[in-house]
């Protein structure tokens, strides 16, 4: 099968041998897995560096860099006027000797470009949003910073695609509320690299106190402040916050200062440690160093952090929302608490840190759950079957 994966954003500092993170990491891994299954896969990203090559062959698939939009890093809101140009470039490209059997749009801007190209080529379109503006707005409120046109354009996109892929059950419900029929929404969770994230290996240095680790960007929506407040109920434990800018720039970061001031007022400043940005290829050592990983974001569609921690054999205490609610089985692989209930969060952490046998059992169950249900091989297999179904619907019935 010929598969085109469309992400209108430029890759972050992309090199032929360089790392990719976030949505780009997800797309790159899917492309490699599908290529390994024998499919001819091409990934389309915007080229923001005029000196970058037109394409790169890597991990069995081809990455094509599309020369549209400004030749420099550009915020999402400023890419919208270039969607039609991106779609036309794809239309012209697919008019040659390589045309995909199915196009898979990623994020809303990539989906709009894929849908625009599909109008001129009749290629069926599958869409993964990765996050939904209407859902972010509901959970983040004033912290939501998406462009104003995003929500209506996402709603229009649901009417233009053949199938939408949701990464958690909350997203399934949201897409149906947006007007999609349930039969047009497929639940395909993200995968975890179990060769990178596993219980055996080095762990980051630590002292004798129990360690709670939380991972995420340093923004108010990450929910780190709830953990700082909950720490008063936990007792003598350290809270390590990984994410944000590099460690040497934390002193000048507004959210880092806010969290430290909050810790001072709560009387837990000595227990809270911000370590700044940690390269993704080093995250497994940090997960293994923790007794518990806490996941308290205001919005989480994929629940990637909870899955990576579970793959490393660490129980998770998290808010029961989004991908976290799907990944964590309450009282089996960790503990789920109602979102925003700081007291319940603190008590869950306290009890689990005091229960060595319980953490051991949860950790083993967590590893089994990830290896059975959240591998990249399983994710790619589900997408492969979905593509076949979508392509089969478009084929004319033979007499």
TrEMBL record:
The lineage of its organism: Bacteria, Bacillati, Actinomycetota, Actinomycetes, Micromonosporales. Transmembrane segments: none annotated. Signal peptide: none annotated. This is Glycosyltransferase involved in cell wall bisynthesis. PANTHER family: SULFOQUINOVOSYL TRANSFERASE SQD2. GO terms for biological process: carbohydrate derivative biosynthetic process. InterPro entries: Glyco_trans_1, Glyco_trans_4-like_N, Glycosyltransferase_grp1. Residues 22-191 form the Glycosyltransferase subfamily 4-like N-terminal domain. Residues 205-356 form the Glycosyl transferase family domain. It comes from the Bacteria. Keywords: Glycosyltransferase, Transferase. It comes from Micromonospora pallida. The keyword Oxidoreductase does not apply.
């Amino acid at each position: 099968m010929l598969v085109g994966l469309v992400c209108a954003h430029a890759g972050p500092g992309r090199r032929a041998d360089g790392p990719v993170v976030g949505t780009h990491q997800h797309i790159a891994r899917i492309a490699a897995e599908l290529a390994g299954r024998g499919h001819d896969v091409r990934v389309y990203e915007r080229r923001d560096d005029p000196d970058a090559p037109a394409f790169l062959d890597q991990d069995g698939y081809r990455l094509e860099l599309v020369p549209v939009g400004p030749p420099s890093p550009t915020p999402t809101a400023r890419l919208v006027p270039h969607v039609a140009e991106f779609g036309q470039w794809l239309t012209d490209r697919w008019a040659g000797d390589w045309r995909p059997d199915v196009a898979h749009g990623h994020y809303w801007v990539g989906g709009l470009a894929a849908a625009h190209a599909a109008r001129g080529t009749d290629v069926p379109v599958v869409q993964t949003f990765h996050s939904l503006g209407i859902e972010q707005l509901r959970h983040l409120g004033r912290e939501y910073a998406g462009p104003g046109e995003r929500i209506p354009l996402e709603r229009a996109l649901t009417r233009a695609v053949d199938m939408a892929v949701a990464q958690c059950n909350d997203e399934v419900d949201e897409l149906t509320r947006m007007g999609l029929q349930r039969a047009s929404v497929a639940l395909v969770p993200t995968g975890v690299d179990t060769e990178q994230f596993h219980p055996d290996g080095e762990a980051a240095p630590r002292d004798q106190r129990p360690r709670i680790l939380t991972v995420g960007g340093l923004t108010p929506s990450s929910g780190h402040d709830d953990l700082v407040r909950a720490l008063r109920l936990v007792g003598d434990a350290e809270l390590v916050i990984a994410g944000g800018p590099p460690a040497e720039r934390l002193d000048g970061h507004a959210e880092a200062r806010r969290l430290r001031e909050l810790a001072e007022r709560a009387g837990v400043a000595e227990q809270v440690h911000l370590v700044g940005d940690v390269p993704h290829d080093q995250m497994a050592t940090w997960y293994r160093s923790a007794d518990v990983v806490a996941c308290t974001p205001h919005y989480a569609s994929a629940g990637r952090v909870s899955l990576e921690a579970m793959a490393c054999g660490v129980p998770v205490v998290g808010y029961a929302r989004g991908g976290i609610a799907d990944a964590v089985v309450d009282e089996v692989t960790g503990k789920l608490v109602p979102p925003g209930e700081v007291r319940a969060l603190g008590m869950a952490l306290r009890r689990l840190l005091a229960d060595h046998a319980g953490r051991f059992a949860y950790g083993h169950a967590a590893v089994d759950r990830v290896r059975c249900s959240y591998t990249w091989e399983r994710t790619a297999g589900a997408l492969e079957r979905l593509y076949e179904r979508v392509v089969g619907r478009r084929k004319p019935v033979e007499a």
